[in-house]
Amino acid sequence: MSVPAGRRDRFLVAVIVAVTLVALAAGYLASRALTQRVTQAHALTLARDFTDALAGALTVFDGDGRFVGIEGGERDAVLRFARRVAHIDRMLAIGPDRVVAFDSTGGKTGQRYDKSYIDAALSHAAATVMFADPDDTGLGEDAAVSITEAYVPVLRNGRPVGVFELYLDVTDTMASVASVFAIAFTTFAAAVLAATAVAVVLVHRSLRRRREALYQMQALRDAAEEARRALERAIDQQKRFTANAAHELRTPLAVLRARIDGQPPSPERDALQRDVDRMARLVEQLLAVARLEARQVTLSDGVDLVAVARDTVARLFPLALSNGRDLALTAPDRPVTVRGDAFALEDALRNLIDNALRHGPPGETVEVTVCADPPALEVADRGPGVPAAVRPHLFEPFSRGVDSKGGAGLGLAIVAETAAIHDAVVAADDRPGGGARFRLSFALGEHR
Amino acid sequence: MRLLIVEDEEQLSSLIQGNLRREGYAVDVAATGEDARAALATTRYDAVLLDLGLPDEDGLAVLRDLRAGGDATPVIALTARDSVGDRVRGLNGGADDYLTKPFAQEELVARIAAVLRRPGGALGSRLTLGALAFDTPTREVTVDGRALVVPRRELAVLEALLRRAGKVVTREALDGAVYAFGEETESNALEAHVSRLRKRLAEAGAGVAIHVVRGVGYLIKAGEAPR
Description:
The complex is a heterodimer.
Chain A: H1 5-55, H2 72-85, E1 91-94, E2 99-102, E3 108-113, H3 115-128, H4 141-146, E4 149-156, E5 159-167, H5 170-261, H6 267-293, E6 300-304, H7 305-322, E7 326-330, E8 337-340, H8 342-359, E9 365-371, E10 376-380, H9 411-421, E11 425-430, E12 436-441
Parallel strand pairs in A: 7-9
Antiparallel strand pairs in A: 1-2, 2-3, 4-5, 6-8, 9-10, 10-12, 11-12
Chain B: E1 2-6, H1 10-22, E2 26-30, H2 33-42, E3 47-51, H3 59-68, E4 75-79, H4 84-92, E5 97-100, H5 105-116, E6 126-129, E7 132-135, E8 140-143, E9 146-148, H6 152-163, E10 168-170, H7 171-178, H8 189-204, E11 208-213, E12 217-222
Parallel strand pairs in B: 1-2, 1-3, 3-4, 4-5
Antiparallel strand pairs in B: 6-7, 7-8, 8-9, 10-12, 11-12
Helix pairs in contact in B: 6-7, 6-8
């Protein structure tokens, strides 16, 4: 998926906000419905309670049909009900010729109503209430919320003899409706808002974590870049040092050599020349070690080991000849290629051949061999060989192995460094028939 | 023979100057690239020894400008620098040879002699070694002044070896010298030519030896024949 992180984050926040708004709207509607149901149930309960209380109040008329008020326990029950719910504003008892009003405590108010009011009340009660079923109070569901007054007829022998005019004090009810709504909606809204807040916090935290991860990544990248630059600077310095050291060391040696060469021939002059040559060789080797350790070599594909060996043998043959030794190459007819640095490999091979020429007896032939599979360079001599005891330290700088015939002990260190750079392995063993054999083996040709 | 040494290290240049004068060369010295350009512009030199690390500029720049101006004077680059890339750059930049400091004076003299007798060089005509002399224009070989008859292919081998006396000449190079392009080469023909040439030179008392470098090539050197 290739949605950018920033766009994905903004999308997430928008979804949370939309869900919150929808939830709040749904909560509002649900709270209203709930409130309506609660209010209806409340009104129905009130009406039912009143009807129950009224059932015992039928005795309020005497045998002649005259109203005598609410008597005994029933009267108390009605009054109790009236007090409890405080929703009955007044009660009207209707006699044959008069209407008597009671207050909510059951006491007579003494107020009288004329006949026309009574008739109107009675006809209204008859029209709105079917008294036959006590459960059917006439308080329909739709009316429940808005009822403020009700007329409950009183029948005797199937004839209406009075009416209770019932006032429901809806103030309380409406207040409770409002509070139910408020509580329901507040609770719901609080839950939605809390969920939203949690969601926002979670999203924010994940965003922050991602940002922190990005910062950390950037910091790591910066650190790596800085380290790379420092390394480059160090390598540059090392290269400059090597170049400067080469100049500083070689120039005075060149002066010395020119001065000695200018002297008339003598055994001393020859000795001095050999000394300068040794010093020059040592400087060259030291610089080679420094160069190799600073990895100032360039590996490229297709370096031909046969060409490397042929050039090196050709270059060193005159030296071998002047030392009374022979040097020979055995190589396949076709190129043997490895990934490497031709100059570094020539240098390494030169050091191996130098060693062999120094350690072998006069008149011997130093054999250089190029192997094809796996690619390897081999140099064998007929010298005293390499004792097992010195083999572990043979390739360390300034280790001279068995003796110190003119070498500074750097040659094999150069070979080892060169091998390391080329992923090659250098090893010394005994040559069959006597002498030492050094082998520089490469991994798998150039297709590694 | 007039040579120019371009070298900022004064001791070295004056010592080389002294040594080369004893070899019979007339030697001028320039210490900077600017001096070198001035000397090269006013005087015709037979060869130039050019240090690549000059105080005012890269010696290779002097060399490049010299070659760009159509001047084919042989140049031997001298360097104290270490980078192996320098070796290649020097030779690619138009130098005829390359010497890393420090170097033996006889090596320097040999290299100068070599560049001077290259085709195009002022003295390309006579190659000598031991009692042997090879006159390239006439293709006559003499031993102590006595003429020696050498067949054509052996003569080609001898010339190639003498041009690089003291150095190994590879079989490929000798094959190239002996056989024209497209000519059939027999696998052991070179060995046969060298063997006959050796015998011929030994019998004539030429005082030179042809050494076999097994697997690589041959080398000719003054001295007794080996083995």
